[in-house]
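ugh ok so i messed up the first submission bc i forgot one of the chains. this is the corrected input, ALL of the components this time, i swear. 234 residues overall. if the numbers dont match what u have on ur side tell me asap before i send this to the collaborators (the ones from the other lab, u know who)
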Amino acid sequence: MDACEARIVDAERVAAVRVRMPGDSDLKDTAEVFGLLSDPGRLRLLLALVEGELCVCDLAVVSGLSESATSHALRLLRAHRVVSVRRAGRMAYYSLDDAHVRMLLDLAVAHTEHVRD
Amino acid sequence: MDACEARIVDAERVAAVRVRMPGDSDLKDTAEVFGLLSDPGRLRLLLALVEGELCVCDLAVVSGLSESATSHALRLLRAHRVVSVRRAGRMAYYSLDDAHVRMLLDLAVAHTEHVRD
DNA sequence: TCGTCATATGAAACAGGCTTCAGATGTGGA
DNA sequence: TCCACATCTGAAGCCTGTTTCATATGACGA
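and heres the new structure output, hopefully the right one now
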């Protein structure tokens, strides 16, 4: 079936792992989500949004990024449906729009506050 | 104190966010952990280890990486204390060694299995 | 001790991502 | 209609990270 690889030491365990291993597509998606959280700037943006919506200029101030960099980052997050926009005149208010990501953020903050490594 | 920025729209909320925002160092660490999970190859390696230790060659087979790439990836994960090694003769058995990362992996898998997006 | 095997390492190539700069879009007020 | 403002966008430059190739280390068996 899916044999034909190099020398395998623990064939039984390898087989078991393969069964539970998610598919390439799911794995790629998951890696991408983690990737979105792997940048300090984006992480700050998202953490800022945990408690509610904020406009781009406030997000820029809070994150320490330039407004252009902020906009680029938000565009990326928007493309992945992690945040959503509400337009009000010339302002744009962003908010968290992904329960999964919110969970990851909560977990990360909890761990940050609780652990001294 | 920490004033002197550009125009701020919602000063109150900005102040509140700033209070809860983790420090630069914690933020960087957290981003790095997510970064370790942001590569499909490393993700496969770690998922393979969820159920127990495996040697390098089996990890290479399961992850689809070359043995060299696998070794490089494991070295990186080892440097961040995410995995640990047990040497047995010329073999090296790796295992998950970070409860936080294990939690993130479980959460990711659960989400992968449960959600169709 | 010699050769082979499992793993580790270094350097280089290559790709991808983030930031900046300049300019575009679109809104609100005079 | 014209200008100022908030945000968005595109292209370029730079930096980082991942892979491959070649080689090194260290252990086992003859």
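quick check: Chain B has one domain: 24-114. that seems consistent at least. The radius of gyration of chain B is 19 Å.
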